[in-house]
Each structure stands twice: as structure tokens, then as C-alpha cells.
Amino acid sequence: MDASPAYPVPTSLSPSRVESFTSCPLAFRFGAIEKLPELPNIHTLRGSLVHRALELAFCSTGPERTPELFHRSLELALSEYEQDPEFIELRLDDEVVEHFRQECRSLVGRYLTMEDPTQVRAIGLELRLEASAGPLNLRGIIDRLELDEHGGLIVTDYKTGRAPMQHFEGRRLGGVHFYSFLCEAVFGVRPSAIRLMYLGSGETIEARPTERSVQFVTMRASAVFAAVERACVTGDFRSRPGPLCPFCSFQQWCPSFGGDPTIAAVEAPLRRAVVAA
Fold it and tell me: SS3 of 273, please?
């Protein structure tokens, strides 16, 4: 009889989890397999808050989507998030909180320079989709699904950072192609365009999905899943140092930084409890 795997094998993957594993298998193990709590992060909260503000604004009809509505939606989102336990745990002083608010206002203001929201025919906001790709379920959340002038689907993804350099652009679009696959699998329609809106720099990157790009999504996800499955069976989740290491919640247990990954499952919840106290 085969031995049980060292870790349970996940049954689904999202674009962020695919990127997490390819970037650092050990961080993937901590977050996706062991589900260890991560420390609150002001950059992640800022992105979530701005997404929430845009979602609130797009709940209104086209003619109602004035700049004033977007600013009101942002203030409502700010009031929601400033009561969020993760925001409170950051223990920001008044000056940092005000800077955070101004950053969020600036991002929403820049969005309003990038397109006319009154002309957007949104049909889905923060849309959760899931579809099977062989034995694996692929899942994701589409920021905005809309119709173009011919009735075709457009997938729009908001990014609160700056647009990547050209040689990283394809990797970023890969995640949105993932959503294109989900749309085709769930609705039976391939989107006519996929779009990344970089609110940090005011740039929009757009691509048209093809049969080949959609097939590549399932091929890549299947290859990553096979690697995840092997790692779960063997227990071999290796660290992969990179530029995101300073922002990793699990760095103190990473062997690349002198840490012991075997004690993370015990210490991470205790650390979170101390931070929240």
C-alpha cells in the first residue's frame, strides 16, 4: 500500500496560488496547504479597499457613475476597512492613516482619468467562477465582467500598482487569461478582450484571448498542479529566494534566512494572536 502523502493535496487552484507555487513552493505550503495566518499588510489592504470602492460605485447605473459617486464610494469603503480587524492590527498612527487615505483617493482619482465609467456596461462585479480542468478545479474572482459594443465579454482586472516592464507583461496577462478560460468554461463564450488597468501608473494593457492562450492556461495549471502533488507526496517544498522575500509573512521560518519551517505551524498562530492582542 502506498504511504500517505506528507501533506494533503489541494483540489483547486486560483491564479494567485499558481503564481505563489511557481514563485516559492515553501511559501505556497505555508499559505495554501497549512493555511497559516499571515500578518496584515498595508499594501494588500489598500488594494482590497480600492477594489471595494470601485465595486460599490459600479453597483450604480451608468449615468449615476459621476466622480462624486466614486469619491463617496471610496469614503464608504474607507469607513468599512478602518473597522476591519486586519487594519486595526496594523496600529498605524494618525499621520500614516492619513497618508493611506490619500493614496487610496489618488488611485480612485487616477482611475477616473483612464476611462468613462458611465459608458461601461458591467454585468458582473467581483464575480466568483470555478470550472473543472480534468481532475483539477480552477477558480478565480473577476473584478469586472462587461459587454463591449458588439455584446462580447470583456474581463477587466484592477491593479493598484504600476504597469510592469514589457518583459514581465506576459506573466501578468497570464492571470487574466486564466479568467478567460473560466468565462469560456462557465458561460460557453470566450471573452473578446482581457484588460489590466494599472491605477498606480494610469496604464491599461489589453490582449485578445485565443484558443491557444486558453489551452495554455489549462496546460500550465495542470503542470503546476502535478508539481504541487509531487511536493505534497514527498514533503519537498523548497524555498526560492526572490525580490518579494522582504514582504513574506513566513520569512522567519524560511531556511534561506536561517529559519526552521517545521515549527511554523505552531508559532505562526501564536504570533498572530500576540499581534492582535
Answer: helix
Nearest of 230, 170, 171, 165 to residue 201 by alpha carbon: 165
Cα–Cα distance, 101 to 88 (Å, whole number): 14
Under-50 pLDDT residues of the chain? 1, 167-169
Rounded CA separation 268/274 (Å): 10
**Side chain identity at 186, as an amino acid letter?**
V
Mean pLDDT of the chain: 90
Q: How far apart are CA 242 and CA 212, in angstroms?
A: 30
Residue 169: predicted pLDDT: 46
- The CATH 3.90.320.10 domain(s) of the chain lie at 120-221
| pLDDT for residue 244 | 86
Fold of the 120-221 domain: Lambda Exonuclease; Chain A (3.90.320)
